[in-house]
Amino acid sequence: MSITLDQVTKRYQGSPVVNDVSLEVGEGEFYVLLGPSGSGKSTLLRAIAGLTGVDHGRIALHGNDVTHVSARQRGVGLVFQNYALFRHMTVGENIEFALKVRRMKAAERRERRKELLRLVALEGMDDRLPTQLSGGQQQRVAVARALAHKPPVLLLDEPFGALDAKIREELRRTIRQVQRELKITTVLVTHDQEEAFALADRIGVMNLGRLLESGKPDELYARPATRFVATFLGAANLLLARQTEQGIRFGTTPVNARRVEKLDGGREQEVVAVLRPEEVELAPTRDNLRTNFIANGIVEEAVFTGALERMRVRMADGAANAHIGTHSSNGHHSPTALLDVTRTQHEQRLFPVTIGQTVAIGVRRIHVLPTPLSSYTAYGADEAACERLAQHPLLVELANRMKTRIIKRVESALAAGVATASAPVSGVAVISGGPNSAEQLQWLLQNGAGEVLVLPTHSASPQRVLIHWAEDSARRSTLAVAASLLRHVAAEAVYVGILPEGSGEAQRPFGVRTLLDARSEAQAVHGLEMRTELRFGAAAEELQRQLSDSEAPMLILGVSDPAQLRHTFGALFAAGAPYPLMVVYRPGRDSEGVSE
Amino acid sequence: MTFRQPSILPGFGLTLGFSTFFLCAIVLLPLAALVMKTATMGWDDFIRVLTDPRAVASYRLSFGASLLAATLNSVFGFIIAWTLVRYEFPGRKLIDALIDMPFALPTAVSGIALTAVFAENGWIGQYLAPFGIKVAYTWIGVVVALTLIGLPFVVRSVQPAIAEVQRDLEDAAETLGAGRITIFRRIVLPTVMPALATGFTLAFARAVGEYGSVIFIAGNLPMRTEITPLLIVIKLEQFDYAGAAALGFIMLTMSFAMLLSINLLQAWGRRRLVAAGR
Predict the structure, then answer these.
(1) I need a surface site. Which of A318, A452, A567, B169 has the fewest CB within 10 A?
(2) What are the two backbone dihedrals, phi and then psi, of residue A421, each rounded to the nearest 5 degrees?
């Protein structure tokens, strides 16, 4: 491996800007780090170059640990967005700088300079000053300069940011060519997905300091694991659907799409479906569709953009409230769902549509996101309590970042303790923390809730998320919830394993193995990087100690037996927990059935 | 040749006229008077006044001490400016404001204050005395006074230039394998150099003309610690107006020659850079 990052963390004023990033970049690979501004991608690049120290983790270049080696000694090639050329030196002097510092002989230097200038197609420009060159030419010089000393890896920090579209494309081609010719391991940082697709062997998408997903461009596009990647890499319609035994259902319409991945062992639950605009088919009636019908709709907008026609279709029927994305920029969720559709000219010719026309909507391919956190429902005993909870800053922040919706539901039964709910619980149920939150939680679990978020009245965005599960059967789903949640908050994840007090030395290796297993499962199955800690004592007390020791904590607690909540973890609720708490509940028996 | 070029900015004639008038009234007229006054004395008298050993000694002190003070200021002013721009520390704003104090302080006050501190029984002077170092009433005192006066010029000229040195440049040099000294010498200094030269020039010019603070600390011993401006005042007190004018004229000429050569040097440096690009 050319570059190996192992749980690299960089904090800035306490909060992590690079959060537990682990990554391996192969020999000669072109890796693109993609993310919005402020996602920590540039900081990560500077950490690889050695210009920024890391607070935690390990960095290795070609197998050598360089975590504590200075930038000067690492000697990577680095290209900046603003070129960072030495303006008082000529092009030739700029390129020779690294060689001069290394006391290379003048003749050899000249030789290397010629070679590099040929490589970036700037022959004969040796004696120009950087200010006499165009932006594109300057960046070519910067690339040549970064390659002069034959660095182990080449790092490019938004190298095309300051250039206009035409030059950008040309330079992109040059860089790809140079990279192929030299077979040099390259990491490029950008916020432009088109650029990422054009250059990358592999793309890693970063957000809020975490490396969310990493993979080949086509795979990431076809099968994203997170909402963020689904919507950041290309356009996507996110719809809430129901996973049933038969397949997927939008509202009341079952869709017989083939090859839809089953989540959580096919348990009936709310899921998030990704529909790419180009996978949507329009036809005059349901019978004319060649693909799976999902709903009828009305064409609201149609814009011709050369090769493609971009449309917005408002979905009717039961599928209408399946929509969870925010289309309108003013933050209001539209009452019915708008679907983005793109059609080729061929499709347009086959079925021309006009605005206002009713059409049947079909879909060629549905991808279900492997996230257990589909939407939020705020539960309250009365209207006011519901409203207050739905306005909770942390809940609003989570829902915004997950691009999902918050529904309010008044359940008088919640307080009264009546056994059944007025409607089935789906998605994440949210209640406010307080003296009777334990009873409310119990009630929700009895009514089929899989995930319950308990929010205290005042709670900041969490910085440290503790993860714990009571029985091993809850492990898998707890990790899935943790992975999904942690992709949307800038917090560190810590799994706390607890062995009973007085468990002998003999138990210790077992405990440590549990931790390692948990960590590798989180990494391999859920793409979640987390730390681990082993404690001894009563579970509730240990957790409480940990929680009160950390700044802005949150707890994700997995149980497979509702009675456990009262018996083992009662202490956590007794005081009306001052931190957010996510309870993940999966009945224990079916996972036991699997293991037997 | 015509000055009237079509321009989007109106009022060129008016502003040029005003500038010329102002320069004439404030700068050129007094200078002309100085030259005229000098011209009233004969050539021989003129030479005699200029080559008087006492006058020659004063030139040496005035220009020597000014050059030394400007050089000291360039070094320490650069460091102060660097500290102020690059580091964030409590009291930074206060120090930043303190830099301008020599601008605002009446020069006589700073002269007296320096004398009090550096005199043999002063706060610092008493510790220096056992080592045989005398500051007040020697040429060292003159340099100290001129350094104080010129410091803000260097700091204020260099500050924006340092702020402009992009961190990226240093980062780039570091990844290319340059050590700190190399980065400073080959990247930072060349970028800041023009501003530093400007600061040096200003500090030097100010030091040559300084009078108030120096006369208190210098002790004013003829041939030893007498600066040229003081000699001029002495001549005035003896009603030797022509002699005073002659000394003033020679100071003017020497200062102008030095400032011009520094400017030319700078321009040459710039042009060499550009020429290298062709």
Answers:
(1) A567
(2) -85, 160
Q: Which residues of A fall within a CB distance of 8 Å from B182?
A: 101
Question: Is A161 found in the same domain as A268?
Answer: no
Whether residues A141 and A280 share a domain: the answer is: no
Cross-chain Cβ contact B182/A101 below 8 Å: yes
Which ipTM score applies to this complex? 0.77
Chain A residues with CB-CB distance to B185 below 8 A = none
B169 contacts on A by Cβ (under 8 Å): 84, 86
- B-chain CB neighbours of A104 within 8 Å are none
Q: Do A86 and B182 lie within an 8 Å CB cutoff?
A: no
User: How close, in Å, is residue B199 to chain A by CA atoms?
Assistant: 20
Return the number of CB contacts < 8 Å for A and B.
76
| All residues at 6 or more sequence positions from A578 whose CB lies less than 8 Å from its CB, including other chains | A433, A456, A458, A459
Q: Give the whole-angstrom CA distance, residue A296 versus residue A301.
A: 15
Same domain, A104 and A124: yes
Residue-number span of the structural domain to which A117 is assigned:
3-222
Q: How far is B190 from chain A (nearest CA, A)?
A: 7
Residue A229 domain-assigned?
Answer: no
For chain B, domains (ranges, CATH) are: 66-226 (1.10.3720.10)
By C-alpha distance, the chain B residue nearest A82 is: B168
pLDDT digits (tens, 9 = 90+) for A233-272: 988 988 888 887 777 887 777 876 666 666 666 677 888 8
Instruction: Quote the pTM value.
Output: 0.81
- Asked whether the predicted pLDDT for residue A329 surpasses 80, the reply is no
> Residue A75 is nearest to which of B173, B175, B190, comparing CB atoms?
B175
In a domain, residue A491? The reply is: yes
**CATH number, domain with residue A355:** 2.40.50.100
Looking at A325, A348, A368, the residue that finishes a domain is A368
**Total domains in the fold of chain A:** 3
